[in-house]
Amino acid sequence: MQTSAVQKEYDFVIVGSGLGGLACANILAMEGYSVVVLEKNHQIGGHLQVYSRDKSIFDTGVHYVGSLDEGENLYQFFKYFGILDKLKLKRLDEDQFDLIRFDDGCEYAYAQGLDAFERKMVSYFPDEKKAIRAYCEKVVEVCSKFPLYNLETSGESYLADENILSLNAHDYIASLTDNVRLQNVLAGNNLLYAGVKQKTPFYVHALIVKSYLTGAYKFVDGGSQIAIQFSRALRQHGGEILKHKKVTAANYDEKGRITEVVCENGETFRGKEFISNVHPAVTIDIFGQERFLGVYKNRVQALENSISTFLVHISFQENSFKYLNYNIYQHHSDDVWEGIEYDKTTWPQTYFICTPYISKKGEYADSMSIMCYMDASETAEWAGTCSTVAEPGKRDAEYAQFKKDKEAKVIARLETVFPGISAKIKAVHSASPLTFRDYIGNGNGTMYGIIKDSTSPMKTRINTRTKIPNLHLTGQNVSLHGILGVTVSAFVTCFSFVDKEKLIQKVKNA
Question: What does the CA dihedral 44, 25, 89, 139 come to, rounded to 10 degrees?
Fold first, then answer.
C-alpha cells in the first residue's frame, strides 16, 4: 500500500459503479478532473450487471430502455458520452412494444409514439376518445415541467409546483374515466416503477411512460454493455475504476471535510470531493452516522424503499420457443395495482415477461425472464447470509428449496399464458430479494430505491448535497430510477461542479 506521503489525491472519489456513479465519473473526467470509481463487487454496473448460466446470458435489472429514438433525451445523453454508436440495440415492435394482458385473455398493446399509442387505445375503447386524449395531453404537460428531461436547464420547475408533485397516478387516471378496464390498461405497466395505489405520483408514471413511447429498445446480448462502454469511455478520459474495493469508512480533517475513504482491506483513497452512488441510508452508515444531523439521518433511515423482486430466468431447449419482440405485463387480477400487496397463496398475481434478444439465435428465444414482486420479509430468515462473486457465501438447503417452490409457482402461472411452455424449458434459475441486496448494496433488495409519495412529496426528496461539505449523492434515489432517470440524476449531481448551461449545451450539440 502507498504511504500517505506519496499517495495520489483524486479530484473525485466515487463510491459505487452503478449507472449513476459511471455517468458522474464520465461527465467529470470529460471536464478534465481526475476521477476514481470504487466498486465492491466483481462486476461493475449495479443493476446493469448480467450473469450467464448454461451458456445463456441474463440481465439482472435492465430489460429494455426508452427515449432512444433519434433526438430523444437518452439518445442525446448517450451521444454526448460517446457510447451511442457502440451499443447494440434492437427496436421493439412498432405497433406493440408492451402488451398488457389480463386473466380473461384480453390483450392491449402499447404502440410506439404518442399519436400511435393514442390511436391504438381508441381502437380498443372507441367510446373513451376524450379520456384517452386528456390522458395523453396530461402526460406531455407533466413531462414539460421537468426541464432536464427536455434537455433544458431553465423553465417552470416541478419542485415549485405542489400540484404536480402531489397528483396521484391512480387517482388521476381514475378521474378521467369510469371504464375500469381502461384505467387498468393505462396503468398496466406499473411494474416499471413498482406502483403503489395510494402513493405513486402521476409524474413518475408520466416520465416513465413517455420515455418508452419515444423509442423502446432492447440491448442485444445483454444490458451490461452500457457499463462496459461507460468504463471504456472513462478510461479514455483518464478515469479509473477499481473493483473489489468495498468502502466501509471515511477519515475527516478538522473542518469536517472528508480527506479519504477507507476500504475493508485497509486501503485508503484520498480525494477533494466524494460522490456516493450507494443508497442514502447505506451512505450514512459508511460515512459515519455522527456526521449527519439527527433530523436528516432519521428521515432518510425512515424512508420506505420500493418492493423487491423475485426474478426467474428460464433457458429454452434449442429452437423451441419463438422470440418475442415485445414485453408482456400479465395481471391475474382486474386491478393492476393489487399485485404489490400480494397474498402468498395466489402469488404471483402480476409479473413482467420478456425474452432477451441474442444475436446468434435469430427467430428463436434463447431464454425468458419473468419478474415478480417479492417482499424482503419472505427471505428474512436468511438475511444474515451473504453470497456474491466477490464475497462467496453459502445459503442453506431450505433457501434452495424456497427458491425452487417459488420457481414452480411462477412456471405454473406461465402455463396459463403460454400453454405447454414447461416442456420447452431446459433449465431454471432465480434471484431473490437477497441477491439484489447483496449485489446492489441496499437494505431490502429494493428494485427502484426510495418510494416517491404523492401524499408527502418533499419528504421523499433527496438532495444531491449533504451536510458534509464535500460529500454528494447520485443514483436512483436522487430524481428518478431507470436508465434515463439515473442519467438525469448524474447531471444534477455534477451541476455542483460544472456550469449547467454549458454542460447541457454540450449534450444538445453532441
Answer: 110
Q: Which CATH number does the domain 9-48+64-85+220-303+454-509 belong to among 3.50.50.60, 2.60.410.10, 3.10.490.10, 3.40.50.80?
A: 3.50.50.60
Grid cell at residue 356: 432477451
Per-residue pLDDT of 416-458, as tens digits, reads 999 999 999 999 999 899 888 877 767 788 888 889 999 988 8
pLDDT digit string, tens, across residues 27-50 = 999 999 999 999 998 888 777 676
Position 3 scores a pLDDT of 47
For helices 482-494 and 19-30, give the axis angle rounded to 10 degrees: 40
Per-residue b/e over 247-263, b at no fewer than 16 CB within 10 Å?
beebeeeeeeebbbbeb
Domain residue ranges in the chain: 9-48+64-85+220-303+454-509, 112-215, 307-447
More confident residue, 176 or 60: 176
- 504: number of Cβ within 10 Å: 20
Distance of CA 28 to the CA centre of its chain: 22
pLDDT in tens, 125-138: 999 999 999 999 99
Q: How far apart are CA 304 and CA 488, in angstroms?
A: 22
